[in-house]
């Protein structure tokens, strides 16, 4: 049986490996988050790509242009793609268009796990649970019954809304998309216009941002009470001006990768399931041709 290479990532990758091995696959790892001391070099990357037709990269694959890994040495995208071979199948999450093109140019094929409905749905649920846990831990006030602002009402935003409703919170939602606002309103949220955000924030106990682009500018952040717990859940650049927050002395809880921290087993085994399904489809398709 062919081997599966697993490179980088957070604690979810440990459970991806566990799941695949339980189903009879041999694995090789590099830049792995299991605490073992491995040789963290590009030579080890080359060995993985040389030995394994199927390669599992992290979710997301990159952070700030480098491999998403807790290892001290972090290969950049160019180093990562250097060893991709013709016919290789590369799994991961949130591939950029450039990264997909690089894999394609080298004769490989990319499979973005974050394009799968089931993964997106469960990832949002795990993010919401983690966000609530962080809010409770990082605020001097109780979450139950509090006033919460939620900016961005996509999958993660709506999942967070449901969790906050279960805690008896009053939720005020802002989203540029009118359809998203309508969904939030139907789910029981109050809707806020952009011009009123600053005023509402001064009364709120918590701010959850899932909007991927700028919402909270310096002008909106001015005068925010120190007690407000602000949680940035969106990927870079996010919806909060962090430089402005620093200048104003406002602390932002930046929380990427919550599923990997709060639900690595559930999230990792789910990724493993979907990877295995896709590998089985690939092999079945090849047998027919």
UniProtKB/TrEMBL annotation:
InterPro entries hit by this protein: DpaA_N (IPR031629), NAD(P)-bd_dom_sf (IPR036291)
Dipicolinate synthase subunit A N-terminal domain location:
3-114
Q: Which Pfam families match?
A: DpaA_N
Annotated SUPFAM superfamilies: NAD(P)-binding Rossmann-fold domains
Q: Which domain of life is it from?
A: Bacteria
Which Gene3D superfamilies does this UniProt record tie to the protein? Answer: NAD(P)-binding Rossmann-like Domain (3.40.50.720)
Name the record gives this protein: Dipicolinate synthase subunit A N-terminal domain-containing protein
């Amino acid at each position: 049986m062919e081997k599966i290479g697993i490179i980088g990532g957070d604690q979810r990758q440990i459970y991806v490996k566990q799941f695949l091995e339980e189903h009879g696959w041999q694995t090789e790892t590099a830049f792995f988050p299991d605490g073992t001391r491995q040789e963290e070099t590009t030579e080890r990357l080359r060995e993985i790509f040389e030995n394994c037709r199927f390669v599992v990269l992290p979710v997301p694959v990159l952070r700030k242009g480098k491999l998403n890994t807790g290892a001290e040495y972090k290969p950049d995208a160019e180093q990562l793609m250097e060893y991709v071979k013709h016919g290789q199948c590369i799994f991961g999450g949130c591939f950029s268009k450039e990264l997909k093109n690089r894999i394609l140019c080298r004769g490989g094929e990319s499979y973005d796990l974050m394009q799968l409905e089931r993964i997106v749905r469960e990832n949002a649920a795990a993010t919401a649970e983690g966000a609530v846990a962080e809010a409770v831990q990082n605020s001097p006030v109780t979450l139950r019954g509090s006033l919460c602002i939620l900016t961005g009402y996509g999958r993660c935003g709506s999942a967070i809304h449901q969790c906050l409703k279960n805690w008896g919170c009053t939720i005020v939602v802002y989203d540029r998309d009118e359809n998203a606002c309508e969904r939030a309103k139907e789910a029981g949220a109050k809707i806020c216009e952009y011009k009123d955000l600053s005023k509402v924030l001064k009364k709120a106990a918590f701010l959850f941002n899932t909007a991927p682009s700028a919402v909270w500018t310096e002008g909106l952040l001015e005068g925010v009470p120190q007690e407000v717990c602000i949680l940035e859940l969106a990927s870079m650049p996010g919806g909060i001006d962090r430089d402005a927050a620093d200048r104003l002395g406002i602390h932002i809880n930046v929380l990427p990768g919550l599923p990997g921290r709060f639900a690595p087993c559930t999230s990792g085994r789910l990724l493993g399931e979907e990877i295995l399904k896709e590998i089985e489809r690939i092999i079945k398709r090849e047998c027919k041709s």
